Amino acid sequence: MKNKRFNLLLIIVVTLVSLWSLWPTWRDYSLSKQINGFGSAQDSLKYALSHREEIEEARKKSLKLGLDLRGGMHLVMEVDQVDLFEQKAWNKDPKFIAIMQAVRASAARSDARIIDLLLAEFKKDNIRLSRYFYDIRNSDQEIVSKLEKESVDALSRAKEIIRNRIDQYGVAEPVITTQGSRKIIIELPGVSDENRVRNLLKGTAKLEFRLLREPEVMVRTLDRINSFLVQNSTVPKVSPVPDSSSVAAASLPGSEKVAQAGMSTASNPLYDVVGLSQNGTAYTSERTREYVLSLLRRSDIQALLPMDSELLFAAKPDIGKGGEKLYTIYLVKKGPELTGGVITEAKATFGSQGVQPEVLMSMNTEGTSKWARITGANIGKRIAIVLDGVVYSAPVVQSKIPNGNSVINGIESLEEAKDLEIVLKAGALPAPVRITEERSVGPSLGADYIRAGIQSLAWAFFAVSVFMLVYYKKAGIAANIALVLNILIVLSVLAGFNASLSLPGIAGIVLTIGMAVDANVLIYERIREELAEGKGVLAAVTQGYDRAFSSILDSHVTTLSAAFLLYTYGIGPIQGFAVTLMIGTSASLFTAIVVTREIFHLLLAKNLMTEKSFG
To answer: 4, 46, 260, 587: most buried, per Cβ within 10 A?
Structure first.
């Protein structure tokens, strides 16, 4: 008797908890329906503002829909471990550069581990890894172990940094998992601004403060490059040199210098596409930017640069006299004076005049001390603020900065400033990441999937329910009640643990419906066998449940094991299917063994069941 009371109490508690867990979902649906039901946008906005807390609370606790149902982005990103290993190397001679180029080419064609490709290339040339990595006394195996640890740490750090960026961006219930040794799978439900998300995830956030070389050094460097191009008559194989007329030379600051020097632009290939102002600032037009970039990346051109120097472009263009967009070219020192690792706080705001967006940065104690020393030693000089290889600004140091504060300006919009704040707060990626695969699901397609999913679920439930009613009569009603509770439990567990319901998840629920009924069929057939032997209804029910239990338990444990393996080794949609299948299988075991049995006991207690109740 005590056992029956406990079972009844357990069923009531499970039902109430399930309804309580799904109440926010229903509330979110009804509030959304009310907002959409207003005749004007003004009334909708007024209602939303007056019920803001209630709407946010319901949305936060409601059942979340997966990417395929809600719409959003699916991305596969790859950590550039070749770049990571290049960062860890020293004594980078031409041979090392050639080896790394071969590794990069192999990595583009294969999903093999980068460390294996690297080791194979070194063995091919019979070169020890210690020539370029770590200590000269280390064996190849020791270095491989260290590089393997570096690659695992890089993947883990990249995953966490990407998660931090996404969390700060405000995506609800993102799914971020790793695949293999260098890939990260990202699902972002409800994302609409896809381009902004791409930029947010790809940026390594490698922040550096670099000193600019003197203007006269810049002038000499460009003259040297120009003379080299004239003497060698070499042209990059990327695109033809634009006509001087297409460069809008009159709008380039520097056309005056070219004319004063008596130069003919026809015999000066560099000055056809690069303007030089009186103060030694170089520019190129937006139309010739890619051409100039490819020109300056050439190894023979790089060899003409001053030692420990690098040419970088401005992140944003300036507007020339003719209205054309012009990109400044900076000659900066390769070695940074300070890196972004010292940044403790970043905040997007507007400048002193309240027009231009900027990002304010604060540094830790170590950074503050170094920044004070750097600015104090370089008063009157320019320091470039370089983020991911482009210059955001290059202010002149007016005085020593003792408090560790600095500013990034040259930003177009407050939205861009906020994204920059996010990546600086989340930290720099250990190596560049690139998007290797991308899929987008629109909200309308998601709505079609929801409709199709609900229809499949409804038809499955209808077909099974009708069969159970026709074939098992009153016993079929008990099975159908248990089936409703089963679905209720699955949805409530998903909502309670903030898991997402996806299209494969709906497939898992449909399969659960079939499994739940299968357990009832086993029990009912056992009961019918007992009734056929002449036993009473109560004895037949008791014997039927006892004898069917082992078969039901075996089938459910097997299914749970298979679902667990799918969840452990699967990704994305497979995991969504496995989660609902595990929850549904556990709920099916409870409803088949406990719920239907208690329903029969209640009916038997009121003499409402006979032999014919089982068909």
So the answer is: 587
Tell me the per-residue pLDDT of 406-456, one tens digit each, with 9 for 90 and over: 777 767 677 777 777 776 766 667 777 888 888 777 666 667 777 888 888
Angle at 601 between CA 598 and CA 605, to 5 degrees: 145
**In terms of Cα–Cα distance, which of 548, 552, 541, 547 is closest to 603?**
541
Edge-first strand listing for the sheet containing 390-393: 338-339, 207-211, 383-387, 390-393
450-458: long-range pairs with CB below 8 Å, 24+:
450/65, 450/69, 453/69, 453/503, 453/506, 454/506, 456/506, 456/507, 456/510, 457/487, 457/506, 457/509, 457/510, 457/513
Q: Is the overall model pTM greater than 0.85, yes or no?
A: no
CA 128 to chain centre: 37
- Structural domains present in the chain: 2-62 (no CATH), 73-204+433-440 (3.30.70.3400), 209-333 (no CATH), 338-426 (3.30.1360.200), 444-614 (1.20.1640.10)
Helices (H), 497-592: 503-532, 537-569, 573-590
Question: Cα dist. 381→61, 123, 249, 368, 376 in Å?
Answer: 55, 48, 29, 19, 10
pLDDT digits (tens, 9 = 90+) for 121-153: 888 878 888 888 887 778 888 888 888 888 888
Closest CA to 392 of 316, 333, 446: 316
Q: Is 605 helix (H, G, I), strand (E, B) or coil?
A: helix
Q: Is the dihedral of CA 108, 111, 116, 121 positive or negative?
A: negative
* DSSP 8-state secondary structure symbol assigned to residue 591: I
33 vs 401: CA distance, rounded Å: 56
313 — alpha (psi -120 to 50), left (phi > 0) or beta? beta
Question: What is d(CA 514, CA 302) in angstroms, rounded to the nearest whole number?
Answer: 68
| H helices present in 170-312, as ranges | 194-202, 215-232, 255-260, 269-273, 289-296, 299-302
Kindly give, in sequence order, each residue whose CB lies less than 8 Å from that of residue 449, ignoring residues fewer than 6 positions away: 68, 69, 503
Residue 106 host element (H or E): helix 94-109
